[in-house]
Amino acid sequence: MHARVSQKKQQARITELEEQVARLEQELGPGEDAEKIVNKHIKMLHRYNEAKDAAQILIGRLASLKETTIRQIHKDLDLPTED
């Protein structure tokens, strides 16, 4: 059994959500498409991750050549050891 919500409360919630959407759209900027912005950020994140992965491969090879650990290479180059 579902609890019933009065029509008045439903309309108040709808109005509240519509106002929130309007504020967020205004904050985003006129004529901006949120989906395009999200897609752009996702592409940029993929590029970042690919570059980071390539750097980690190189660091691994350097560690192998120097016969040391990846952690030590990070320390020697003042790189973060945590993500």
Automatic annotation (TrEMBL):
Keywords: Coiled coil, DNA damage, DNA repair. It comes from Rhodocollybia butyracea. It holds the Pfam family Swi5. Belongs to the SWI5/SAE3 family. InterPro entries: DNA-repair_Swi5. GO terms for biological process: meiotic DNA recombinase assembly involved in reciprocal meiotic recombination; meiotic joint molecule formation. Residues 7-68 form a coiled coil. Gene3D superfamilies: 1.20.5.170. It comes from the Eukaryota. GO terms for cellular component: Swi5-Sfr1 complex; Swi5-Swi2 complex. This is DNA repair protein.
